[in-house]
Amino acid sequence: MDLLFAIIAGVLFASGVYMMLRRSIMKLLMGLVLIGHAANIAIFTAGGLTRARAALIADDATTLDAGTADPLPQALILTAIVISFGVLVFAMVLVSRAWSAVGDDDTDSFTGTDR
Amino acid sequence: MSILPALPIIIPLVTAAVSVMLWRWVGAQKVLAIIGSLGLLWATVALLLRVDSHGIMVLQVGNWPAPFGVSFVADRFGSIMAVLAAVTGVATMCYSPGSVDSRRQAMLYYPLVNVLLAGVCGAFLTGDIFNLYVWFEVLLMSSFVLLALGGERAQLEGAIKYVTLNLVSSALFLIAVGILYGAVGTLNMADIAVKVRSAPEPGLITAVAVLFMVAFGIKAAVFPLFFWLPSSYHTPPFAVSAIFAGLLTKVGVYALIRVFTTIFTHDTDYTHTILMIIAGLTMVTGVLGAAAQMEFRRVLSFHIISQIGYMVMGLALFTPLALAGSIFYIIHHIIVKANLFFIAGIVHRIRGTSDLKVAGLRGVYETSPLTCVLFFIAAMSLAGVPPLSGFFAKLILIRAGLETESYVIVAVAIVVGLLTLFSMAKIWAEAFWKSPGEDGVESVGVPTMPPTKMMLAVSAVLALGTVLIGIFAGEVFGLAQRTAEELLDANRYIRAVLGEAP
Question: Which of A94, A99, A109, A111 is the best substitution to test chain B (most B C-beta atoms within 10 A)?
Answer without folding.
Answer: A94
